[in-house]
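Schema walk-through. Below, the input block comes first and the output block second. Nothing else is stored per chain. Lengths vary across the set, and this one has 120 residues.
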Amino acid sequence: MKGFTLMEVLVALAILSTSSVVFGTIVGFFNQQRSLERSRANAFVCAVETMESLVDNPPSCEVSTRPSSHGPATSRNVDSGIPCDSAIVTFSPVPGVVPLSWAQVQVSTVSFRRLVKCVK
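--- output ---
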């Protein structure tokens, strides 16, 4: 007699189905992590673009917190789910130094703080 027994076939099918479930779980986890990394990278790019626009277009020298009104709204973040206009910008003037202000840009989990020139 040649061939496989029923028990051998059932064991092979059990091993195959278990390995395919494990592989599917790994692929799902990988896709989830990739999506999180993409959104973090897009938030980083958005925060950098907002900070660059503050350097190019100096803000006023007053303490304020407001949504970003500088720069392009969604320049490179079309597929991110994080629009670039969701950046929150906080300005704090430097005491004793009139033309400088601390600018802090926050987009989701990314935050930058930098000295920028400000307009009186």
